Amino acid sequence: MNKEFRGLLEQNIFANFKLVLETHFMQMRLVLKSGEQSLPFMVWSAGQREFVPLLLGLYWLLPSDLARRSRFKWVVLEELEMGLHPRAIDVVLLIVLELISRGYRVCLSTHSSQVLEALWALHHLRANGAFPEALLGVFDAPRTSPMRKLAETVMTKGVKVYYFDPNTGRSRDISELDPEREAAGEEGWGGLIESSGRANEAVAMAAANADRQAIP
User: Fold this and answer.
1) What range defines the domain where residue 180 resides?
2) pLDDT, tens digit, for every residue of 11-22?
3) Where a domain ends, among 159, 178, 203?
4) φ, ψ at 176 (rounded to 5°)
5) Quick one: which of 39, 60, 72, 80 is 20 to 30 A from 95 by CA?
6) Do the Cβ atoms of 110 and 79 come closer than 8 Å?
7) What distance in Å separates the CA atoms of residue 184 and residue 207, rounded to the nearest whole number?
8) The pTM is what?
9) Residue 150 and residue 189 in one domain
């Protein structure tokens, strides 16, 4: 992985610790290390423990020469957001974009509205002819040359979003991610933003009632 990703991972997932393979009495173990302090696997956060096996796979798929492992065309990731806070999810999504920029076809499953918000932004940035830097802004990513090249490549790629309806057992294309469309699964992005919609509606109603009561 390039230095931008290593820095983002260290800062946003490993709390400025480094992931190190440590040898101790003929045994090897992964630890988080900062100076003389060394944290074994069992004291890591749940998100760190969930993420490191995924990171090892991603690290292997992303050799430093910016190539793609030629015998692999697809990368399938299930619920990449598990155990991660929002900033960490942004970093993992950036790594997903790096996979795409190298020519992998990536399939994600998710229960995270944040993932769909990023895809919604990508869709509309492309539709409006935005500069690649705008995509980096979505993730608060560094504006270095490698990251700009990544964004430029990803902006040319197509994205599809499908919602699996548990009631019918079928999936439907909701790639427009239009929150105002009444089609099943699209209005609430498969139910992922329905709670925020209800919260907005409740607050708006309360504010309107307060305004009416304030009128003499």
Assistant:
1) 162-216
2) 999 989 999 888
3) 159
4) -70, -25
5) 39
6) yes
7) 30
8) 0.83
9) no
